[in-house]
Structures are given as structure tokens and as C-alpha cells.
Amino acid sequence: MRTNIVCNQCSQANKGFAVFYVDTIRDDGVYIGRCPKGHHNAVATQTLRHEMLFDIALNAIVDKYHREAISSFAASVERYYEFAIRVLAKNRKIDPSTFEISWKTVSAQSERQLGAYVFLYTVSFNESPVVLSSSMITLRNKVIHNGVLPTLQEVLDFGEASYDLIQKGIQKLRANCLDDVNNQLVESMRKTIEKFGDQFPRSTQVTPTALNVIQDLSAGYRTFQQIIRGYGIQTPHGEAPQ
């Protein structure tokens, strides 16, 4: 997948209006290279892993790679679990080194991460979190483990379930422990910037995505139908959703 990277020098020459160029999306969020006009850039993006994976899933639908979309939606949900667990651990003042030791025992198994998320969320808020339904889990397993090719409607249903799960969770985190959400964002960005080494000049940017932790969700969030309409995704009936 490709992403837009801002060139500060081109933007300054454009009276402060952002000028972007396209680069291949990177796992580490660090983009070092030159824009089409030859300006050297070292740019770190604030996009979190679950946000990036969700956008990859949406673009997979656009390109009609339905199986890959399910896989990326599922991965997005799992990485959201990790983000939420880290935020709730900060909220409970867990020592970072102690957390990392414990995280190693669950990091390789998604079911353990789900269990950690469910119970940490429950003891934090005295309610159960939204999770994927049994039918959605069955669909995911059939696609990922059995090689089943999903229909477009199944992909959209799974995407909507994943979207609501993540957005409702982020909404709860922001409402109850916003400082810890922001601290986790700062920590994530710090780790990304460290990868620059001695590269200068350097800058950071927030890449617009369907999911965005920094967005104020107190008044609600866009529906999944609105999201897919923005990506030009058509329904099985061949029309963009209204």
C-alpha cells in the first residue's frame, strides 16, 4: 500500500500549504528519502499499528482482495487490544519493565491477548468490552485458517464489527483515561523517532486514516457506512452506500 508523506520544504514554498508525495507504507512508520523535487526528508508518522492495518484492509476491499481485507481487519483488532492493554496498564501505574516481562508471555498468542484485554477492561470499568461475535470469529477462522474466500458482504460485515469494536473501545479509553491514551501515543512516537538515528532534518506528521486515536469521540463517531463511502467502496448491489 502507498501513503502520502509531507515535504516540509515544498510546503514552505507553497505558502505553508502542505505538499505531499507518495511513498510505500513502512512497518516502522519512518520515511527517509527525497521528494520528487529532490528535497531530503526524514518523516515519522504518528499512525498507530491498528490504524494502519485498518486502512490496509479498506484499500484491500477497494482492490477486491477480500481475503486480505478480513486478515487485515482481524490484525487491526488484535493490535487495538495491545494498545488498550498498554493504556490501561499505564492507568494502573504498572512499571514499564514489569509490563514488558508480562507482555512477552502473551505477545505470541492472540487468544491470550484477548483474555488480557477482556479482564483488564472489566476490572477497570466494571463492564465487559465489546468483542467480536462468535459468527465473526468463525468467519475469521475460516478465512485465515481454512482458506475460505469471503463474499464482499461478509467482508463489509466483518469490517463493520471490527470498526465498532475499536471505536467503542477508544471512546471508553478517551472518556476515562485520556492522559494515559496521550502518554501511550507519546511513547509510541518517541520509539518511532528513535529510529531516525542522526538523520536531519526530521519532522513528524499525522496521516489521515479511518481510525484516529487523537480524534474526540465524545459526541460519537462516523458510521462504517460513511467510512466506506469515503473510500469509494461499493456495496454488493453495485452502489456506494448512502
What would you say about this model in short?
Helices cover 55% and strands 10% of the residues. With 242 residues, the protein is mainly alpha-helical.
Characteristics of this structure?
3-stranded mixed β-sheet, 242 residues, mainly alpha, single chain, 8 helices, two-stranded antiparallel ribbon
Q: Would you write up a description of this structure?
A:
This protein has helices spanning 8-13, 49-62, 66-91, 96-104, 110-125, 134-146, 152-194, 224-230, and strands at 2-6, 20-24, 30-34, 40-45, 203-205. Helices cover 55% and strands 10% of the residues. The protein is globular. The two termini are 26 Å apart. It has a three-stranded mixed β-sheet, with helices on one face. Helix 2 runs antiparallel to helix 3 (66-91) and helix 3 packs across helix 7 (152-194). The longest helix has 43 residues, at 152-194. Strand 3 (30-34) and strand 4 (40-45) form a beta hairpin. It has one domain (2-230). By secondary structure, it is mainly alpha-helical. It has eight helices and five strands. The model has no long low-confidence stretch (mean pLDDT 91).
What characteristic shape results from the CA principal axes? globular
Helical fraction equals: 55-70%
Task: Give the amount of beta strand, in percent.
Answer: 5-15%
Order of helix and strand elements from N to C terminus: EHEEEHHHHHHEH
Q: What is the CA-atom radius of gyration, in angstroms?
A: 19 Å
Number of domains: 1
Weakly predicted, low-confidence segments: none
Number of helices: 8
Reported for the largest beta sheet, the result is:
3 strands, mixed
Tell me the distance between the termini.
26 Å
Structural class determined from secondary elements: mainly alpha
- How is the largest sheet built, in terms of strand order? 3-4-5
